[in-house]
Queue: 2 jobs
Job 1
Amino acid sequence: MIVPLDEGVRELVHDGDTVALEGFTHLIPVAAGHEIIRQGRRDLTLVRMTPDVVYDQLIGAGCAARLVFSWGGNPGVGSLHRFRDAIQNGWPRPLEIEEHSHAGMANRYVAGASGVPFAVLRGYAGTDLVEQTPTIKTVECPFTGERLAAVPALNPDVTVIHAQRADRAGNVQLWGITGIQKEAVLAARRSLVTVEEVVDRLDPVPGEVVLPSRVVTAVAVVPGGARPSYAHGYYARDNGAYQAWDAVSRDRDAFARWLTDEIGAQAPLPGKAG
Amino acid sequence: MTTGYTSDEIMTVAAARALTSETACFVGIGLPSTAANLAVRTHAPGLWMIYESGTLGTRPDTLPLSIGDGVLAETADTVVSVPEVFNYWLQPGRIDVGFLGAAQIDRYANINTTVIGDYADPAVRLPGAGGAPEIAASCREVVVIVRQSRRTFVEKIDFVTSVGHGSGPGDRERLGLRGAGPTRVITDLGVLQPDPATRELTLVQVHPGVTAEDARAATGWDLAVAPDLATTPEPTSEELAVLRSLTGRGGV
C-alpha cells in the first residue's frame, strides 16, 4: 500500500495508459509527473481539466500521444509553450487533442465515478466545440423533451493525485481547494496518491475529503510533491516558479537542458521521439 | 488627452463600476479579477466573488495570481468541489454576473479563447474554454473586459468558444441559453452594449480623451455608435489608489 514513488509509478503507470494527474491549481502531483518522465513512459493519453506546467513538461518530454482537457495554460502567467509546440508543430511528436469545457470534464468524471455511461449538462449549445469534439452529443430528456448536452464517462486506467496526509492503512485526507480529485480517483481503475506525510491517526479537518484506502491502490510519501503548486497547511504556491517556467518552455534547447538538469531525463530528439 | 492614469487603469475602473454590492459574480483571472477586487474595496463591499476553483464568497487580501491560489480558499465563505461549483451553482442560474475576458470578440459579443486560425492547424493555440462556455450560457448576464484592437475585435472570430448573442436577435433563446448574455463589453477605449433590437455591439461610452473614431479605428467591423455617446467619469483618486495598491504600482 505505501510504496516508494518510483515503484508506484513503475507498477501503476504503463505505456499507452490513460492517465489523469489531477489537481485544480492546488495539490498538483508534480513529483509523480516528473517520475513518469524519468521512467520514459510513452503513448500516454493524458487527462486533466487544467493541464498546466507539469503537463507541459510531460508533453515536451514526448510522453503523451493524446490530451483530454478543458483549459491548457500556465495559470496566471499565459500559455504553455511545449503544449503549443506539440499542437502547432508536432514537436516532439504530434499531440492529438480531445477538448471540452470545465463543466463537461467535471461531469465526465462524475459519470465515471458514478458508474454510468454518460452525464448530461446544460452546456456547449452554440459553441464550435460541438463540431470538433466527438464526445459531445445531444440527448433529449425522456421526461421533458428538452435537448441537453451529453458527455461520456471518463474512466482513466490510473489517476494520480497529491494529498496532505494518509494513515498507515492508506486512508487519504485532503482539504483546501479539493477540485476534481475525489471524482478522478473514484472513476479510475487504479490510483496512486502521493502525500506530504503519513500519520498514525487522521485528525479531522474542516472541508476535508477522505478517500478510504479501499479506493486507493498505492500511497507514496513525497514531501513537497506538489511544488511549485501548493499543499494547503504545508507550503504556499511558488508563483515565481510558474513565471520562470515561461522562459524555459519557450525554447526547445532551454527545455532540453531543464529535462537533463532537473529531471535527469534525456531530451526527445525531433523525428525520433514517440 | 487626459493624463494621470493609464488606459488599462480606466478600463479596470469602468469594469469595477459595472459590479454592484448585492451581486454574485463568477470571476475570471486577470483583468476581471482585478476589477472585481477593486469593486469590493470601493463601492461594492458585499460583492460575492466566486472563482471556478470552488471558492465561494472569497475576499482575498492580495490579488491572486491564479484562480486556485490558497488565499482564495482561506478567505472564502466556503470551498466546494469543481463539479459542485459548475453543477449546483453555475448551471441552475444562481450567479448574477459572469466576468470574462476574450482573445477575439465579434459584433455579437461571441468570444474565442481557443485558437487563432484553423482548429486542426492553428496559427496560435490558446488555452481553451475552461469555464467560459457555461458561464456565458448560465449567468444572468455577462460582462466582458478586453483591450480593443483590430486583432481582437474581428468581423468573424476563428472559433466560437462562448456564445454571446449568436448571429442576432432570438439566437440565445433558440439555443436554450438561459442568461441574458453579454450586456456590456468594457475596453481600454470605452464601453459597448448590445443594441436592444439588433443585438449588435454599439459604442455607448468613451473614456476621457478617446473619440468614437479612435474606437472605430480599433474595431474590425463597421462599429455602430450611439447617438448619445457618453464619456466615462474620470477615475477618482480613491479608485486609483486602491487599484494601484492591488497591482503593486504604489499610491497615487
Job 2
Amino acid sequence: MGNGHKNNDSRAAANSVGVDRRTFLKTTAAGAGLATVAGCLGGGSDEGVTLGALYITSGFASLYGEEAERGYELAADEINDDGGIDGEEVTIISRDTEADATTAGRQLRSLIEEENVDGLFGLDSSGVAQALAPQVAQFQMPFMATHAATPFLTSPEGEHEDSVGNDYVFRNANNLAQDIYGAARTAEELDATEWATIGPDYAFGYQTWDYFQAFCEGLDVDAEFTAEQFPGLETGDYSPYISSIMDADPDGVITPLWGADLTTFLGQAENAGWFDQIDYTLFSVGMGTDLPADGSPLVEGEHASTRYDPFVPDSDENNSFRERYTDEYDTLPTYNAEGAYRAVYMYKEAIESAGSTGSDDLVDAFTGMEHSGPVGDYQFNEETNQATVPSIWGTVSYDDEWESNVLDPVEVYEATPDVINDALGDSDLPSGV
Amino acid sequence: MINTIAFIGLSDVINGLSLGSRLFLIAVGLSLIFGVLGVLNFAHGAFYMIGAYVALAVTNNLVDNFWLAVLLGATAVGIIGVLIEVGTIRPLYGRLDGDLDQLIVTFGFVLITHEAIRLIWGSKSYSLDPPAVLDFPVSIGGSSFTAYRLFVIGAAFVVMVGLWVFITKTYFGSLVRGTSSDREMASILGVDVPRLYTGVFFLGSFLAGLGGALAAPLQSISPGLGEQVIIDAFIIVVIGGLGSLSGAFVGAMFVGTLQAIGPKFMAAGHVAIPFLAMVLVLLFRPEGLFGGFGE
C-alpha cells in the first residue's frame, strides 16, 4: 500500500491555493481514493509494481551486483512479457549499497520514501544486512534477502545478543549455518584433522569459523583447529596471511573470502605453493560469482559450495531457467543471479495471492510460504522467515561443454531446522534456520 | 585474537621487505615533495594507483612488454604530476593559507582520479602477471616466493641508493638540498626555484608511478588502491620523519615488517599496529626517527 505521502502532498497543495472548504474536502477525498487504488497495485507510482533492489554494484564485490541484476532483469522481463503481476508491469529500481551499512541505509530510505517501492530485495554483505534489518522493521516494508548469509539476520531478535530477525525480513537463500553445516559434513569425509581459516575481517569471516568449529564438534568430526587469519576487505597483498597459514601447515583450510578478494587471494596462494602444501581448501563462497566461468582461478579438485547449482535439482524448472539464462547472458547462472530472479517471482506470487501490494499483506503471504523455483521446492520457517533450502557442496571441476567450472561430484545436504540446530551441539550460536 | 602460532621466520622477513619496498617507493616521493616544496600531496596515493593502471593498460592494450609498461607508467605519472604542480599548486605557493589550499587541491585530485579510474576501467579488480623472466618460484627458508617479489625488494634498494647518490653527490642534488633549506637564499643566488620545484615534483610523482607499476603484479588493481597506500605512506613519513630520505626507507621497511609479522601474533586487529607505532613515535620523537631532508 502507499505510505500516505501523496495524501499529505495533495492537502498541502490545496491549502496553498486558497480553495474553499468544500472543494478542499472533495479534492482530498478524491485524492485519497485514487491513492488507495493506486496503492493497492503499484505502490507509489500511478500504476505498476515497483520493487527496490539493494546490491553491491561498485568496488571489490561489484560482480555480485552485476550477477543479481542479470537475474532480476530476466525475471522482470519474463513476468512483463507474460502479462505482468496481476496485469501490472513490474519495475525494478536498483541502488548500490557500496558494501557499506550507512550507504545501504540511505538507499533503503530513499527507495521507500522517494521511490515508494512496494517491496525490497537484495543485500550481499552480512554486516550490512545486520545493520539494515532494524530499519526494515521500522519502515514495516517486506525485505527478501537473497544473499547476505549471517544466521543472525533470521535469528529472531532476543534469541542472541546479535540477533536482528523480525517479521519483515525474509531470506530465500540458504544461510551461513546451513552452508557451513554442509562444510562440516564435507570435512567429515576428508582425510584431514587439522583445520585453519582465512576469512575477511568482519562478521562473515568470524562467523564462518565459529560455525565451522561448532558444527565439527556437534557432528563429532575428528578435527583440531589451528591457525586463523582475518585480512581486511580489499587487501591487495595476502602474502603475510598466506605465509602465516602455510607455516601452521594445516591439512585443510576453510575460506569464506569472496568477490575480488577471493580472486586476488587465489592467484597469490597459487604462487606461494598453497595448493601443493595444503591438502584441502574449502571455498564457502567459491561458486558465488563468475569465478566458475572460463579462465577462473578456482583450483580444480578443491571443494566449494553454492546456494544454488545450475544442474541441481535436475528439474524442468531448473533446466528451463538455466537455458533461458544462458541464452540471454551466454554464461551459467550463479547463485546470486538465481536468488534475485526468484525474489521477483516470489513477490509476484505473494502479490497475486494477496491481491494487494500492502506491506502487511505481503508479509502475511511470505510467512510460511511454500515456493518452487530453480533451486527446488522449499518452505519458509514461520519462526525465522528462513527458507529451508539445502546446502550444496562439491568438487571444483572444469566442464568442457559449458566451458565453465562446475561442481562435480556434487553433494546436496538437505537438513531440517531441527537437524541443523542439533548439529550445532552445545554451542550458543543460533542457526537462524 | 591471539594466534597460537607465533614465531618469525625468514619468510616473514622477506614478506616484510617486499611490502616495505613498494611502500618505500610511494613514501619517498611523498617525503621528497614535502621536504623540498613543503607540499603535503594527498594525491600521491592516486599517483601510485595511476602508475598501476597505466602499466595494466599498456600491457593489455598497447604492447605486451612489462618493462616498457613500468617505464611508461612511471613517466605518465611524472607528467601528470608536473601538470598538476604547474597548473594548480604553483599559484598557491605565495598564499597565506597555502598549506590548507594545497591540501584541498590535492585531495580534489584524489576524488577526480578515483572517478576517472572508475569511468575508464570500472570498479572491477584487475591483476597483472609478472614478467615471464621473473615468473618462477624461489624457495627460501621452506617458503616459496616468486622471483619477481625478490626483484621488487632489490629494485627498492637500488632506488634508495640511486636517490642518495643523486641528492648528496650531484649538482642538482645540492640545489635541491639548498633550496629545501632556504628557498629565498637559493633564489637570490640564481636558482630557478619554480623550475626546480617542478623537477622535484616530477621526480616524486615518477617514483609513485614507478611504485604502482612495479607493485601491480603483487597485488590487485582496483579504484581503492590509492586510498590504501596513502595511509601507509603517511604513517611511514611520520615515523621516519617528514622530508627524510633515509627516514622514508627505514620507516617503509619497519611498517612493511610490522604488516608481515602482525598476522602471526594477532589474527585480527593487527592493522592497528603501524598506527600504534606512529603514535609512539609522535609522542616521544615528534620530528620522526630521522630529521631533515637528505639525511
